Amino acid sequence: MNKPYVIGIDMGGTNTAFGIVDTCGKVIAGGSIKTRKHNNIEDYIDELHGELTRLIEENDAQDKVQGIGIGAPNANYFTGLIEDGVNLPWPTPIPFAELISKKFGIPAVITNDANAAAIGEMTYGAARGLKDFIMITLGTGVGSGIVVNGQMVYGHDGFAGELGHVVMKRNNGRMCGCGRTGCLEAYCSATGVARTAREFLEIRKEDSALRNIPVDEITSKDVYDAAVAGDQIAKDIFEYTGDILGQALADFVTFSSPEAFVLFGGLTKAGDLIMKPVKDSLDKNILSCYKGKVKLLVSELKESDAAILGASALGWEAK
Fold first, then answer.
1. Helices 41-58 and 96-104: crossing angle, nearest 10°?
2. What is the pTM of this model?
């Protein structure tokens, strides 16, 4: 193969990670820069170009990179734009794919970070060989990527698959960062788990290790640590979270009949604490014609490389 590498760029609100990836899904070299270091996009791209050029030269990859794949919040696959950069220091929309392609002289493709994760999973991870699956990312928010018949679902405008913003509680739901109330993200993200902890500690009176932490400082990791130590309130928080997520997955099955759900992100590290209630709730709420047909999988991508791999998978389709 004349060009055996692609570049993956994962832009976050704080850091931008990047790497050179081979056809086997191995990150042969990587690095990162601060996303918000520069006040204008041109200086940011200059630094990114400099760091990646150094990596390319150090790894004898000149003229061997086929394309660049980019995952970024609120990025649109069709337009190549970052449409709404609420966590970025530059005015939006930003024609990011075009700017990167011109700077590097290599084709570039961009999509939102959850879609990139789904493509990465299909190319390198637990979804290899699957043509119909839904990726759910459980991080600070809840993201998703829907694959049907081997193709990413983008919808007519590039914004399909925002399953984190399906409303789970129509009455008296929590305020979500999107401005609506009751969204799945408000309950089943890492921040949602922390919010549930604060609510449970206020409503319930029994002892809990979580009461030793200032209530506004409780994190999902604190809840996990307490649950592992046998804390009942902490275990019930995961039960509550998993039940809501399972209900949502049961509903998601009805519109694309996926072979599997692939879960990715920090919350999956809680293992059976979260996965068992998710599965129980999915089994209880799923329409009978789908029972026993949908697998519940955890991502196989190495966490430190996952974002880069997800973005890089797009690079193979850059033309």
1. 40
2. 0.89
